[in-house]
């Protein structure tokens, strides 16, 4: 059984089968690679003000 948000989560997370459902397990963190490439080639800024 898949959750209603399965497609959204499947694009962003590794999915596992648990309790008869496919649930998100951990993030496919693609942003680290992009930020590391930007950091080595260009300048990287981070806004930490919330």
From TrEMBL:
This is Ribonucleases P/MRP protein subunit POP1. GO terms for biological process: tRNA 5'-leader removal. GO terms for cellular component: nucleolar ribonuclease P complex; ribonuclease MRP complex. Pfam families: POP1_N. InterPro entries: Pop1, Pop1_N. Residues 3-48 form the Pop1 N-terminal domain.
């Amino acid at each position: 059984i898949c959750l209603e948000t399965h497609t959204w989560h499947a694009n962003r997370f590794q999915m596992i089968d648990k309790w008869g459902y496919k649930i998100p397990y951990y993030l496919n963190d693609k942003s680290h690679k992009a930020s590391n490439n930007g950091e080595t080639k260009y300048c990287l800024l981070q806004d930490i003000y919330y």
